[in-house]
Amino acid sequence: MGTTQLESVQEPKYWHLKTVLNDALDSEFEVGEILPNERDLAARFGVARATLRQALEQLELEGRLQRRRGVGTTVAPPRMGVAVGPTTGTWPGAGRDAWSTVGCAEAVAPAAIGALLGTAAEEAVHTIRRERVMRGQPVATELLYVPPASVPGLSELLTPASHAAAVLRELHHLHLEGEDRAVELGSAGAADAKQLDRLPGAPVLVVTTRYFVAGAVAAASVATYRADTCRLTFGDSGALEVTHHQPEARQAS
């Protein structure tokens, strides 16, 4: 990975540096290998550390690098294929849903979610936290919000262990008319970063889903996927899927 003169390049310096680094990742580094520190890399390429950080952040966003606690910046493994949400037309937790429940509580939903659900400002809703793990690696976390009005048959005598199962069971009794999803790029907050084993601020893909019953939103979920692990594509059915990027095989020198 030799020094490159960037002064005469018309495009942003960080973007050209990102291209140079990307080529080096393919030719000189192995998956999991730790990159040199920022000071050494900046000196090697003759750029400011701020420029280097921009290039590294872009490569992390594109899934080529990972920032790991206590380790540093490493070359990311290939992205893994993961289905986004349940099969179209089914409730969370139905069929071969690969998510697992890690907690459930009654709490006031964020204002944006409350607006989707049509709940009052201080109204508590059933909030189920779920996670998705593949090959021993956490790839997504989800918060499923269900207002009490959607599950009127729910028993008031619930234990922490039975709460989530009871809410999902009542949802499955409802006729799901349809759902829609919105996808946007975000950054991991402290809670999601901890659950996903990322650093706060790491790039994530946020999938917000609304579930409709009788023409109204009966439940909503916010799923946070690691952007360094997942890439979204649209299948023939219109359902979202997450696929992994397979880098080209390294040619022998």
User: How many DSSP-defined strands?
Assistant: 11
Oligomer: single chain
| Total number of domains | 2
Number of helices: 6
Shape: elongated
Q: Can you identify the CATH superfamily of the largest domain?
A: Chorismate lyase-like
The residue fraction in helices comes out at: 25-40%
Which series of helices and strands comes N to C? HHHEEEEHEEHEHEEEE
Integer-rounded radius of gyration:
22 Å
| CATH topology label of the largest domain | Chorismate lyase
List unreliable stretches of 5+ residues: 236-240, 243-253
* CATH architecture descriptor name of the largest domain: 3-Layer(aba) Sandwich
Description:
A hairpin with a 2-residue loop joins strand 8 and strand 9. The protein is α+β, with helices and mostly antiparallel strands and 253 residues long. It has helices at residues 13-28, 38-45, 49-61, 111-117, 160-172, 190-196, and strands at 65-68, 72-75, 82-83, 100-108, 124-134, 137-146, 178-187, 203-213, 216-226, 231-234, 240-243. The protein is elongated. The chain has a 6-stranded antiparallel β-sheet with strand order 4-5-6-9-8-7. It has a 3-stranded antiparallel β-sheet with strand order 3-11-10, with no helix packed on it. The protein has a two-stranded antiparallel ribbon with strand order 1-2. Helix 1 (13-28) packs across helix 3. The protein has 2 domains: 13-75, Winged helix-like DNA-binding domain superfamily/Winged helix DNA-binding domain (Arc Repressor Mutant, subunit A); 82-243, Chorismate lyase, CATH 3.40.1410.10. It contains 6 helices and 11 strands.
